[in-house]
Amino acid sequence: MQDTMKPKTKPTPQAPDLWRNVLVNYTNKNIDGLVVFDYAGLNASPENMVALTKYIDELAAQKPSGFERNEAMAYWANLYNALTVRIVAENYPVKSIRKIKSGFFPGPWKKKLVEVEGEKLSLDNIEHDIMRPTFKTPLVHYMVNCASIGCPDLKETPWSAETLEQDLETAARDFINSPRGVTTDRGRLQVSSIYNWFQEDFGDSEAGVIQHLQEYADEEVAAKLLGRKNIDKFDYDWGINAPE
Q1: Residue 208 domain-assigned?
Q2: What is the CA radius of gyration of the chain?
Q3: Do you find a cis peptide bond into 93, omega within 30 degrees of 0?
Q4: How far apart are CA 191 and CA 179, in angstroms?
Q5: By the number of CB atoms within 10 A of the CB, which of 13, 118, 214, 227 ranks highest?
Q6: Would residue 37 count as lying in a domain?
Q7: Which residues are CB-contacts of 53 (< 8 A; sequence separation ≥ 6)?
Q8: What is the pLDDT of residues 204-240, one digit of tens each?
Q9: What is the number of other CB atoms lying within 10 angstroms of the CB of residue 229?
């Protein structure tokens, strides 16, 4: 699957309206500015659960091996996020996505959830075997949402090739300039565990992570990063990104 992301052919439309309607109906921002998803509401709506599955099936029937880069990035991110929303809604209520098991493993990431171009794929396959090695940009980490408070926000509209560059920059800035991305506690620099788990994607060193953060930091966060060479603490909140 990895070597199929290079083509230049015109993509098939991704029929985003079904996914857009789900996002419009069930996403909102809480008082802290976090995008939350109403999994309980979706679970209680057979009509919208069917619509979500129809959207996933429509994506799965396409051939992303024929997509240009931006279209492929949008395709895989939308598929990942739609699959995540569906599996959490199917298992709701849960306090954390980690409570949804894949055999002995916490979380649903290793469970085969979809078949694309004849290959059965898990969420881990999509993120770690396709998106990260194919697109080779740390910005993919701001595209996929794992239904957790500590994750970059679930995008409230479908990812689109036409606006991808601008939307990626916005997503990176929004996360980095939130306490989930970067904060200080009594002078100690704390950043998201994402930058530890996937440090190789961010320069493969703490200095590389800090340089990446500085690229998207606003004035307040830039001041926290000024002169830093090391990170004191990594943190991540696995709580479900649902309304309280």
Answers
A1: no
A2: 18
A3: yes
A4: 8
A5: 214
A6: yes
A7: 86
A8: 999 999 999 999 999 999 999 999 999 999 999 999 9
A9: 9
Q: Contact 177/40 with Cβ under 8 angstroms? A: no
Tokens of 26: 């069930």
Count the domains in the chain: 1
HSE-CB at 16 with a 13 A cutoff on CA atoms is 18
For residue range 98-119, list pLDDT tens digits in order.
999 888 889 999 999 999 999 9
* Tens digits of residue pLDDT in 60-85: 999 999 999 999 999 999 999 999 99
Q: Which long-range contacts (CB under 8 A, 24 or more apart) does 207-213 make?
A: 212/138, 213/176, 213/181, 213/182
Token pair in block for residue 156: 């409230």
In a domain, 99, yes or no: yes
For residues 234 and 195, the answer to whether their CB atoms sit within 8 Å is yes
Question: Residue 139 is part of which domain span?
Answer: 2-176
* Beta carbons of 85 and 156 less than 8 angstroms apart: no
197 is a domain residue: no
Token representation of residue 165: 């560059």
As a whole number of angstroms, the distance between CA 181 and CA 173 comes to 9
